[in-house]
Amino acid sequence: MNCPKCQSTQIIKYGHTHYGKPRFRCQACGRQFVEDATRQPIEDATRQLIDKLLLERLALAAIARVTGVSQRWLQMYVNQKFYQTPKTIEVTQKNQVG
């Protein structure tokens, strides 16, 4: 078995997930992973759809149902978007004619 990040073979058993699958840890880079993981990262197309649905002001529960993501992941995604938005607005003076 190789580390998915650095391809090292220095792998040790590192407990279990809450689903009962064995967890492993790479001693070279510290990456933790599960062999044959069933959960995959959310695709960019799904993230773009979520962004569009958020602009339509749909409820988070509805967005989670439509896209198939968990409500917990969606809430963390929305919080991350919120903290990345700038909090100040720059206003420029308009030139007065006449």
Automatic annotation (TrEMBL):
<protein>
    <submittedName>
        <fullName>Transposase</fullName>
    </submittedName>
</protein>
<dbReference type="InterPro" id="IPR051354">
    <property type="entry name" value="Transposase_27_IS1"/>
</dbReference>
<dbReference type="GO" id="GO:0006313">
    <property type="term" value="P:DNA transposition"/>
</dbReference>
<dbReference type="Pfam" id="PF03811">
    <property type="entry name" value="Zn_ribbon_InsA"/>
</dbReference>
<feature type="domain" description="InsA N-terminal zinc ribbon">
    <location>
        <begin position="2"/>
        <end position="29"/>
    </location>
</feature>
<dbReference type="InterPro" id="IPR003220">
    <property type="entry name" value="InsA_N_dom_Znf"/>
</dbReference>
